Each structure stands twice: as C-alpha cells, then as structure tokens.
From TrEMBL:
It comes from Anaerobacterium chartisolvens. GO terms for molecular function: NADH dehydrogenase (ubiquinone) activity. SUPFAM superfamilies: Nqo5-like. This is Respiratory-subunit NADH dehydrogenase subunit. InterPro entries: NADH_quin_OxRdtase_su_C/D-like, NADH_UbQ_OxRdtase_30kDa_su, NiFe-hyd_3_EchD. Residues 15-94 form the NADH:ubiquinone oxidoreductase 30kDa subunit domain.
Length: 125
C-alpha cells in the first residue's frame, strides 16, 4: 500500500501537478499498472523534504492523458516510456519520441500490457 495516495481524475491531473510545483515538491517519477481489464492506473510521485505525495489516476486503455512535462520537464522521460511500454495516449509531451525512445519498429507494441493469447487446438474452428 502506498502512503499519502490520493485518487484524482484525469481532469484534475494538471491542477494537482501545478499545486505540487507551487508548493515546492519535486517530481520523482510515475508508475503504471495494467489492471488486467480495460483500465490502467498511473501513479505520480512527488517529494518535498522526504514527504511523499502520490496521485493516482485510473484511465481506460486508449483514453487521453495530458502530459505534465510542461510543468515538470523531466516527466517527458517517464511519459514517453509509459506511452511506449503501456500504450497510454499521453498528449502534448514536451519532447515526444513517437514510440521510439526505447523500442524499435521490430519490437512488440506495448510490451508491458497484459497480453491475451488465443491458442487454437486441433479440431477447433
């Protein structure tokens, strides 16, 4: 369980990021979890004087999430990573690598998403 975790909506994300900046919190990172259904949890981690604050948004796979990189420039790295590895549609990243910061054209698309594999057995049609 994560301490100091607050659930927020996608619409509140930029406001909360601005609030953290104005309150002198550092952006640490963001983490993403595939819930195994049609949703992902994205948790944004902030720190000030060894006090962590965390904000969690739950998004539908394919839904748009605004980038916080215009507020915390360093967020562009983890946002590009989540975009590539989980397929999150993060919009307006300060520098968007277009899905090629870590992955090449030959790599599996969104490799961190839980994949559903269908296996056909002999005789199945």
């Amino acid at each position: 369980m994560i301490e100091n975790l607050t659930d927020i909506s996608v619409e509140q994300l930029l406001t909360e990021a601005h609030n953290m900046l104005f309150d002198d919190y550092r952006f640490i990172t963001a983490t993403c979890v595939d819930n195994g259904d049609e949703t992902l949890d994205v948790i944004y981690h902030f720190d000030k004087d060894l006090e962590m604050k965390n904000f969690k948004i739950r998004v539908q796979k394919g839904a748009e999430v605004p980038s916080i990189s215009k507020i915390y420039f360093c967020a562009l790295l983890v946002e590009n990573e989540m975009k590539e590895l989980f397929g999150i549609n993060i919009t307006n990243i300060a520098i968007d690598y277009g899905g090629h910061m870590l992955l090449s054209d030959d790599d599996l698309e969104s490799p961190m998403l839980r994949q559903q594999i269908t296996i056909e057995r002999k005789g199945d049609k």
